[in-house]
Input
Amino acid sequence: MTVHIGPLAPGHAGEVMTIQRAAYLVEARRYGAWELPPLVETVEEIRKHVESGMPALGAWDGHRLVGSVRGKVDGARMEVARLAVAPDQQGRGLGRRLLEAVCAQAPGEVVWLFTGAESDENLRLYESAGFVKSGEHFDAVGIRCVTLEKKVT
Output
């Protein structure tokens, strides 16, 4: 079946949470950090984001949600957040398609995101999609992260 990308609805929140948790377990194992925000985010928090009108997209293979991504708009900038693809669907280009789709919804010139500094696969994806490193920081659970930005207009 062909995977299509489209907007998420509040009723997809449970499926989004399932995909997110499955996808981010790899990162939790890598860093030994089981309290990563995508792993502890609740269905209600996801639902509220989707209802907020901020970008929220899913990838469907037939009726099955196989990936999702959300954007957090702040003025002319947008953070790309919670990019997740079901583990059995990774390597098919779905992450790149979701990333391109959410970037197309940015209201301004710059999109940004962050990922773990040791998450080589993520860094390769983001850099190949035109993102450039713009800084480093430690997140709330003590993981060294890399911030990346991309001009979209």
User: Anything to note?
Assistant: The chain has one domain: 3-151. Residues 3-151 form a domain with the Aminopeptidase fold (CATH 3.40.630.30).
